Batch of 2 targets.
Target 1
Amino acid sequence: MRQIMHLFGMALLVSSGSALAAWELNMPRGVTETSHTVYDLHMLILWICVAIGVVVFGVMFWSIYAHRKSKGAQAAQFHESTTVEVIWTIIPFIILIGMAIPSTTTLIDMYDSSESDIDIKVTGYQWKWHYDYINDGVDFFSVLKTPKEEIYNEQEKNPNYLLDVDNELVVPIDKKIRFLFTANDVLHAWWVPEIAIKKDTIPGFINESWTRIKEPGTYRGQCAELCGKDHGFMPIVVKAVTQPEYDKWLADQKAAGAAKAAEADKDWTLDELVTAGAAVYQKNCAACHMPDGSGMPPAFPALNNNPMMQGDDVTAHMEVVINGVPGSAMAAYGKQMTAVDLAAVITYKRNTWENKTGGMVSPADVQAFMDK
Amino acid sequence: MEHSSNSYYVPDQSHWPIVGSIAMILLLGGTGLTLNDIQASGEVAQMSKYITYTGAGILIFMLFGWFGTVISESRSGKYSPQVDTSFRFGMSWFIFSEVMFFFAFFGVLYYTRSFSVPWLGGLGDKGLSHMLWPDFQAAWPLLTPPDASLFTPIKEVIDPWHLPLINTILLVTSSFTLTFAHHALIEGDRSKVKIWLGTTLLFGIAFLILQGYEYVEAYQHLDLTLNSGIYGATFFILTGFHGLHVTIGSIILLVMLIRVFKGHFTADNHFAFEAGAWYWHFVDVVWLLLFMVVYVF
Amino acid sequence: MSELTMTTDHHDHGPAKGIGRWLFTTNHKDIGTMYLVFSLIMFLIGGLFAFVIRAELFQPGMQLVDPNFFNQMTTMHGLVMVFGAVMPGFVGLANWQIPLMIGAPDMALPRMNNWSFWILPFAFSMLIATFFMDGGAPAFGWTFYAPLSTTYAPPSVTFFIFAVHMMGISSIMGAMNIIVTIFNMRAPGMSLMQMPMFVWTWLITAFLLVAVMPVLAAVVTMMLMDIHFATSFFNAAGGGDPVLFQHVFWFFGHPEVYIMILPAFGVVSEIIPTFARKKLFGYHSMVYATVSIAVLSLVVWAHHMFTVGMPIAGQLFFMFATMLIAVPTGVKVFNWIATMFKGSMTFETPMLFAIGFVVLFTIGGFSGVMLAIAPIDFQYQDTYFVVAHFHYVLVPGAVFGIMAGVYYWLPKWVGRMYDEGLGKMHFWLSFIGLNITFFPMHFVGLAGMPRRIPDYALQFADFNMMASAGAFIFGTSQLIFVYLIIKAARSGETADQVPWESAEGLEWTLPTPLPYHTFTTPPVIEK
Ligand code: HEA
Ligand code: HEA
Ligand code: CUA
Ligand SMILES: [Cu+2]
């Protein structure tokens, strides 16, 4: 019933017209020079097509109306005319040339990523993004923040449903930012409509693109290339800030990084590791192995009740997590995580669900394994 | 039952097509099971093998039956010249489809040589990708692939001027001998047909033996394998599918030879022979191209 | 043109009895029927998958299926519709009509014709069987981009690959047969430039099929090699490139979309003159336009790949080439309108579908031109805008084309008139339903909704609900079509020999009901 009301309300909205603005009928105009050009080009082509449509359909509907048999129309005999045929070949051709010229200049401009101020390497993973500020030594992962409860309709959905991440990509305004796109596993595509960039991220290759954002704000986008199960759940959030704010953010990031590095030397207790590991697990592993460790056999093995999590031989376990399983979706997390996180998640898995071994793997163990 | 020249022969019902379909699903389904068995555990279940063999068996049975039917219809004079033309058109378009199949693989070779390998090595429009493979050097033939821990480097590629050259000579000559056989057939000199056709077949078989020897050499001594990166991949897919076509061509020639011995074909009715010849020439042309772009350049 | 003359040779006996008639038949009419019935079944199955998609997308949040199964639905929906519904549908029309329209006794290679068909049920059984395998059916989209479809694919991908091989073999043989029939079996005196438009468009389509299906076979073969034989065609670690997959796939894939529309152009070019009671305008330019579209279609493939980071020269080339296709397609649209212009029109069901085709296909063509502009395609690519585009050219394009053809020729095939009232109802419900389904997709696409997602952000909710409701209307109204066909095949009065007032063409010179074998003696065409 509610749905029917909803539909009904929609019909009202359409007829009222004034509410149309709220309806997101069109492409956003965006916040960069390029996005404005793109928007204008889009509108230009759209209106040309509409105009052609009006003429073509106009003639057609008029014939349908006027040349009906029921109105007594008699069929004419003509069935050829070289003149009109030439005309209606040439006119569309000219229109197309008119479209091609602005398109070409726009494209050439979009391809010029030289003389950038900041370079950011963007790597697509199943199903998260990694951002690396290559000149500043700052890098982090960015993962969907929307809780499962919202997705499975157990909780009210917040306005940024599915478009929220834990770590936003922070960039300064009015700077030329060059993106280097690549991927770690399958193809993804990094797309933020408001800055008019969509580029595929391809494992083993690097694509380039650039932007210069004019207004501070938060701009949201999504992965735009089918990349497996959670393709619909890897959003992108770009936060454009002023230069001073950016500088401060960058400094904070560096400090946090240093603090994190220092953690490795600290003495960790089992409980601390398990607690830290639970968070790491939910964020990085639960997508495939499920929050309760049940996995989705045969594609993704269960970790609960798994002999590897229970046995005494931790080396095999470390090997899988740190170096991954080549040729499968199981990535080499040694390249993605700190020793602390690795130790935490490994310890966690050995001490949760039904895998209660009480065994612990310390960051030092992990470090030793990796140095080997 | 008269067949005037403007009555086209429409065969009665036939069970061969459905037999062919059953063969096909068994053969491919069985092969699929076999491959997946290997992927999963390295061990092939009996079941998978038997399904494959059954499929292959039925397929061979179907081919004999179907072609047998066509041959006997042809020999009993049911085919008007118009039917003959249909077969000719059919065969030409079939060969065209084969051309497009090879075209795809040649395209792949072109793309990797001109684009992906140079890009990975830091050259050209997407040379930035070299950042991800700092130690990689673009070259062709590509001996060391970007990630040498996943794909084994090649020690040495095959020297075009030994075995491949001999093979080229063999195939080119065989095209001539086949044409001689054809001329002999038109002249009605059947013993010459047998000699030339037999020679052609021998050349074909010699080619296959040498090609097999080359593969063994590649695997055992040169580390040139399917697993040695894109050079190995393109090398084997092109030469492999070509070799498969030579095999099929040789079987066709063998059948033709048997039919000649059985007294089939006349000076003006021998389309099956011609179709086989077209196929052989096509395979020959593919080889010439392949010799140039795979081995020489 | 000649009246049908019946000669008494062995072709004159009727169909065999029982199931054997269908399994072993060499008769183009039987084979045509089987193709069409198969196509209808596949349309219903593919539609069912679409229905699961639309039901899940009715509201934001995950309700019915899990994300992986959703991807399987999307993939199988695309594959079944393209390879199972549309292509066999057109081959069915070709089997029935081409021999009748060119005055041939049958297809040129009747036994092979049977095989072309009978591969399909096996191929699709194999494809559908993947649902029941470990890891589920393919979930990588109908475009199956590597490496998602190779390294990261479920084991069932092996069977997907072999199923595609089988479909490819079937299509190639079917296309060869059509080409040979058209070149070799025309009634004496019928020159190429006298052939009906439908025959022309199928000739060109068949050429495209023979040219590109082998390329599809090649690309799946390379996948098989990458998966099972450790090659690296689509893996940069060995020197290959995932983008290479896309180049080879789209070299097949783009011509494929014209394979799905050219025969529909042909059907519409038959129908409009009949109901406008006026000869087709610009026959010659129609032929040349068809040829140009086919030739151009071979060099535009990378417009599906504008976002892969091609060098700019490639980007520009593919953009210009793609835009050019609007010219010959425009010629076709203008010719149809000029045919209607100053005609004497009536609007029976086939004509309604044909007019619906012209209007809605053109709208789909316009969005195609927008997509062709590379810099703005960056904003459209892989969004629902693309989904809207291709459903406009496929559903009211290809599918309406097939349906229009079925309505037009059904009286001749089954010998009875269909129920005109139901036909009109089918048209109007479909027309309304599909616009409600697919038009809002333009909006959500522009507003930023990516395709192939099982769940979406809140601002897309209203239009998605609308689309799902439309899909329900469209889907259920297809049941009318099914009912109408069954009804016409079973009961009713014998149709007139020429059920349409001014239909022209050899097929209408034959009696109704149609004998099992026709044109055993070819008609003679006078200039
Ligand atoms: C029947 C199938 C069919 C047909 C006929 C077309 C026709 C066209 N298509 Fe479409 N297309 C698809 C099926 C089809 N397409 C499919 C299935 C996909 C998605 C595949 C996937 O990713 O899954 C796709 C995707 C697709 C893309 C890629 C989008 C993306 O992924 O980013 C592009 C880009 O250029 C494109 C362009 C075109 C063009 C220019 C035409 C032209 O042929 C249209 C020409 C027609 C007209 C223009 C209208 C009539 C003309 C006039 C009235 C004359 C005057 C007009 C002007 C001067 C503008 N199509
Ligand atoms: C010719 C081809 C064709 C046809 C006819 C259709 C028909 C339809 N398509 Fe499809 N579609 C594609 C080709 C086609 N599609 C392709 C190639 C893709 C891309 C796949 C990919 O991304 O890989 C796609 C993708 C696609 C998507 C995007 C999925 C995604 O990105 O995740 C959606 C979403 O709405 C959709 C919807 C529909 C609907 C509602 C119909 C309707 O028209 C269907 C109507 C038919 C029926 C409903 C069946 C008839 C009736 C019954 C079975 C009786 C029982 C039913 C009821 C009682 C309702 N299609
Ligand atoms: Cu990542 Cu889609
Ligand atoms: Cu295309």
Note: Residues 25 and 224 of chain B are 33 Å apart (CA to CA).
Target 2
Amino acid sequence: MYEFSYVKPASLDEAAQLLANHDDAKPLSGGMTLIPTLKQRLAQPSHLIDIAALTELRGIEVTAGQLIIGAATRHIEVATSMTVRTALPALAALASTIGDPQVRNRGTLGGSVANNDPNADYPAAVLALGATVHTQRRAIAADDFFQGVFTTAIEEGELITRIAFPLPTRAAYAKFPHPASGFAMTGVFVAETGGRVRVAVTGAGPGVFRWREAEAALADRFAAESIEALVVDPSGLNADIHAPAEYRANLMKVLASRALRAILNSSEGAVA
Amino acid sequence: MKPVANLSPEPRVVGKRARRIEDPSLLRGQGRYVDDVPAEHALEVAFVRSPLAHALITRVDLTAARAHPGVAAVYTAADLAPILTHPRMPFGFPTDALPRNTTPWVLAIDEVAHVGEPIVMVVADTRAIAEDAAGLVEIDYESLPVVSDPRTALQPDSPRVRRELSSNVLQHYHVNYGDVNAAFASAPRVFTEHFWQHRGLASSIECRGLFARPDPATNVLTVWSSTQMSHELFRILSEALALDENTLRVIAPEVGGGFGGKFMAYCDEVATVAAAMLLGRPVKWVEDRREHFVGTIHERDQFWALEAAVDAEGHLLGVRGRMVHDHGAYTPQATNVAYNSASSVTGPYMVPHYDLEVFVVHTNMTPVAPVRGAGYPQAAFAMERMMDRIAQGLGLDRAEVRLRNLVPTAKMPYTKPLKNRAGAPVTLDSGDYAACQDIALKAIDRAGFAARQAAALAQGRYIGLGLAHCVKPTGRGPYETAVVRVQPSGRVSIYTGALAMGQGLKTTLAIVCAEQLGVDLDSIDVMAGDTSLNALGMGGFASRQTIMAGSAVHVASLEVREKALKVASHLLEAAAEDLELRDGRVQIAGVPGKGIKLAEIARKLRGSPGYSMPGGVSPGLEADSMYQADIQCYANACHACEVEVDIHTGETRILRYIAVQDSGRLVNPATAEGQVHGGIVHGIGNTLFEWMRFDEEGQPLTTTFADYLLTTATELPMIEVIFHESPSPLNPLGVKGIGEAATLPVAPALVSAIEDALGPFGVKVNDATLSPVSVLSLLRGAAQAAAQA
């Protein structure tokens, strides 16, 4: 770790001001990615602006058919919130599978989505549910937000404040966890919202993406068999020492089928 | 040695579950590991290690590193040369069979042969400063051809792993007996298989580390090391650095696990001590996990081609084959892993004729030395897979084929025409292998398995049952030391050359002592692995310490007991036969209150100036023992397990795991069980997760625990351990080793179960590590083969 200054602002405005004033400042939320990066000396920020406790970034509520969650809400809070478990059980279930208990107790929704790790779980939910990412400046549709590996529409000094999830008719998430980290080696989120089916895949490709072939097949017939009939081209998918691209291509079908079975076998969506 | 009285068949303390005397301090966070030893004003070391698997060093520039604030010294091999007796490490196991130029360099001079080899040592005020300065060391390399597969390395036209080698083949030999080719020529059936066995690292929670503190007041250099053998480190340090034995003391503090990784003295350790000597200051080096992955030994790969000849009933007529062993870049310790494999293939079975051709081959990867099991697991895997193949080929039951070939108890001691490295015969001394199999099969409900499998299949689930045996020679000699002393305070001290590294050794030795002296476990202190307390000692390896150190403590405790009885008999004016040792006293049996405290006897045996010793005994209520043995006791195990394989993802889930272990008499069933659990978890890792991977350029690909996968609690089933106790006749306690015998059967049992689960697809599994990706590719291969057929 290199030396840096730690600052804990009292308000979102102050946080934004600090970020604007210091070119090399970074916002710190749960720190589940940032702190290990600092420890390995892969980053050298001048200031860490701790936004985890800002009241503007907290809170879980359902209004006007949307579930709205503050950016600094920790994974464990999403996983155990009665509001989330009632309104969007698939999201609560997803949060309960992130990393390990230590990560869930520190990591936050906004941190995960802003970081856009290609193996993170939340981006699959945000994209499949067609959520809206709110910052202190604007609202960004999920389809415009994720722009590839660790890249998003977020600009310098911009902070995610909350994420609004439209409530789906039915939804489920299925993942194959990395055996050590708990990240998704591949994860598939299937959601039907307002009569439209969206399928988002994380872990398998360079950043979260919508699986359009699956969406079309499920629009025809909402059943696991529709997925099993698809052919997934592994070219362009991720390959590493744990799994070649072909293995991930297979996982996409297996996990999408499991998500569907979970939806169809239960009255409410759940994690497969 | 004079004959030793055996432990009573009905002991009072031995065999009862006891809490570990180690735990109160460990659980309070008071354990003192090497990095906890107070080290004020100590300098800290960081090494510059080779980033390449094979290269010439063409330029080293230390200017910037030496100028960095807080740096005390930056050393190359040339800087250490004046105080080293030789630029290479001394031999681990002294042997005439190996060339002098096979051991690693203390620091590399002009050529590096694996990633992680130390080249430059930076000594600074803190580790952080040392690391920063290490980053300022400039080294130019000229790449040389890399050999990263032992099968390629043994080809005559292969590039050499080091320029000084004329061949990469360090050893080429046969281990054999009988006339194997004649046996095969007339055999009704012959089975041939190829196996790949990977074993990874020791992965102790605590990495290596050493702290060297010169003391000008006493002129003694004290060295604390996280090692499995402090006396061996003492020898190597005195040899490499020409240290007078009276000026050196090596202490093993608490050791956070060994598992083979600390079963030798390393170049980093010699270099750190050299730095302390050159600077005349305390110097500490604590290995980080990245260093551990490349700088601490691995066990890695063996490639087998094995054939078994049998008659129509499945009786083994002969076994022959060829094995290529990846030895890594140097020989830091010995070549025993390959020999252990080659001499143990036939395991618990009667095999009339045997021949294995062995190649011990250098590669440009981290050196290979024993990890828990030390070559025996690979041999057990090869043989047990073969037993399954024979059963399948002959249409016989797996258990029945084994039963027909297991050495029966009636034939024990059963001597095989093989020798261990001490030259002692390989003799299966005791055990009941058939009974262990029977217990395992009953415990797993083998009888009901067909119905369970059919029911699962009807739900689209694939479950399988696995079975495997092993025998493991334990208690390697030649000796271990123990001093047992009753102090005038009444506390009992045990000093031993054995080494405690987390397995509960201190509790075990205290129990053996308490059995004879009639004292509470809480009144016993065990000091292990301090060269100033025992001049000689061997340390912790090869499942030996309960056998060797336990027997040494038993012998010494008996002697102390006899002496206490003799003195008490004199003082109490009672016949020794009427006395008993109980509650820290010697008393007249059946007459409570009429007796004398052991502490009182100890005080009297310190002697008073001019007075004679009471009872005419020698001074001190103490005895020391050097327990010797060359012949090893054979522990055995039979494991049975049930797994479910997800044919869509290739994942294996262990549903049940039964371990029937025969480690002879158990001193403490609680710690014995713990050792079995640990051994099995290690075996599960070897089978399903642990895989130290390198690319073709010899670059390690798995140097974090995110990439090198260890078994975690979430993957574990409840492990059911059943002990079958056949006391060994070879030592006075009747004990045998535990920890390794639990690892050996795991890979063959799990793979057998996975293959059984995938039976409907005709999948054959001959390799481990077996990842989910490998399982899916086996399924795909079987499907393609079926489509072509």
Note: The radius of gyration of chain A is 18 Å.
